[in-house]
Amino acid sequence: MKSHSPLPIRLLTHNVRYATDSPFAGDEIWEVRKPRIINELRFITAHCGESFICLQEVLHHQLTDILAGLNCEEKGEWDFVGVGRDDGRSAGEFSPILFRPSVWDLVTWENLWLSPTPELPSKGWDAACNRILTIGIFRHHHSKKNLVAMNTHLDHRGPNSRLEAANIILDQIGEKGKQGQLPVFLAGDFNSQSDDGAYVKLTHKDSPMEDLYTLSHPKKRYGHYYTFTGFGNDERTRIDFLFTNKKAYPWLVQNYAVLENKFDDGVYASDHRAVSADVMMP
Fold this sequence. Notes:
Layout: E1 7-15, H1 30-45, E2 52-56, H2 60-70, E3 79-81, E4 97-99, E5 104-113, E6 132-140, E7 146-153, H3 159-176, E8 184-189, H4 197-202, E9 210-211, H5 212-215, E10 221-223, E11 240-244, E12 252-258, E13 275-281
Parallel strand pairs: 1-2, 7-8, 10-12
Antiparallel strand pairs: 1-13, 2-4, 3-4, 5-6, 6-7, 8-11, 9-11, 12-13
Helix pairs in contact: 1-2
């Protein structure tokens, strides 16, 4: 592949719901939901080697299960970067970035806590939980193009923590993306609707980031609008997003989709729907 050829990439973000032995009404235990999540991820990424999968709320044993499922036919096809938010190792929820090492060379990666002490496991401001940002810098094996991938899960209770987290994330986008010289995508569950401070900050005119929903042509959107459904009794909202630094780097957006999380068997794979988009990286 020539370095000047646009590189097709499929992006996917999904809050897969943490595993619990005491599920809510309408929820199911992980063993029931697990094959549905794995099959979704495998199907959506099957025909694009350059795919990235960004997950939220994943406990260590869930991540192990997902990787085993994705690697069942080809050992080592998928790998990940990320840590548990409670100890920087394996405790607590991960916000991992999954990738194919045969396609992407991992240049470097790191995790930051979205708090005043980003180098330490910590809660910030009015957050109810520790929150993290996972950052990976990747080099495409054939074209040698570099890309910055980011994945996060902002707090569900603290609006100030979400706003401060957005400031930290934007600082990292500027630093890691070398002020627009490198392509950057940001994925995650932001617990922030379009009128919330974090979303407004991330998409402000002074920010390089844009929501792939708004960047996509209406004729090239598929599926649902709302991304959070709960288990049938909650208000549906759009809080899961894919962003790129389109204002600084010439990404091309081909299509956008919000996928189903409940089929004929009535089982919710998660209380969130997956969001996916196909983009071209010049």
